[in-house]
Design brief:
The complex is a heterodimer of chains A (10) and B (215).
Chain A lengths: L10
Chain B lengths: L2 H24 L7 H14 L10 H23 L16 H14 L6 H15 L2 H9 L5 H27 L6 H13 L1 H12 L9
Helix pairs in contact in B: 1-3, 1-7, 2-3, 2-5, 4-5, 5-8, 7-8
The chains are: A little secondary structure (10), B mainly alpha (215).
Chain lengths: 10, 215
């Protein structure tokens, strides 16, 4: 599966 | 970080400060749905599991701690504070919010970025936040007139995600490969749920009258 993106948002 | 997201975070923070102000100054939680507050506590705890594992920035960490601690403190106040708890509208706040939790959990198990505990919890928290305001909106309709601070609380809470939508549009055009369908779709649903509240809030502001939601 695609690497999930960094959760930089609140 | 962009101006839309910062405005959204500040609006979100203001909504929490307004709610804390209402509870602290009036020592009352009348018109506030405990169920919505419990859902928000679950939203923040399940979304910020990376609080201690991934460091994004001081701002990010501080805001996460503020959101988690304030939501837990508000739930504690309404449940346990000897004065505040007496004004809780227990008989009006009857939304079966655990159904929302169950539905969002099932959806998160089906639709997520990656099938890992943290990612499924994150998707769950995004879906749950979209519907977390429902018990509060139902309570406002049942409790007739709405006091100013409660109305302002709901208004800022709804407005913050609208700023986030502008943030996603901005990031979509300014960053390559920026797609966050889960957040975007969920954020649009969340903001749409406030549509009728925003309408009646605008009318009450324009006519300088008390905010009344039709039953």
């Amino acid at each position: 599966s695609s690497a999930a993106y960094i959760k930089d948002e609140l | 970080m962009n101006v839309f997201r910062f405005a959204g975070d500040m609006t979100h923070l203001i909504s929490i400060l307004v709610l804390l102000l209402k509870i602290y100054t009036t020592k009352s939680c009348s018109g506030i749905s405990l169920k919505t507050q419990e859902l928000y506590a679950v939203v923040f705890v399940t979304r910020y599991l990376d609080l201690v594992t991934d460091f994004i920035s001081v701002y990010n960490t501080v805001m996460k701690v503020v959101f988690i601690s304030s939501s837990l403190a508000i739930v504690w106040c309404i449940r346990r504070h000897k004065v505040v708890r007496r004004s809780y509208d227990k008989e009006l706040d009857t939304f079966r919010h655990w159904l929302l939790v169950g539905a969002c959990a099932v959806l998160a198990l089906v639709v997520h970025e990656k099938f890992s505990f943290q990612e499924v919890c994150w998707a769950f928290s995004i879906y749950l936040e979209a519907v977390a305001i429902l018990p509060q909106l139902v309570l406002l309709q049942r409790s007739g007139n709405v006091d100013n601070l409660t109305g302002q609380y709901v208004f800022f809470l709804g407005a913050y995600r609208a700023f986030y939508i502008l943030n996603w549009i901005y990031r979509y055009y300014s960053e390559q490969h920026f797609t966050r369908w889960i957040s975007c779709v969920s954020g649009i649903v969340q903001t749409a749920l406030y549509a009728d509240f925003f309408y009646y809030y605008f009318i009450s502001w324009k006519n300088n009258s008390k905010l009344q939601l039709p039953a």
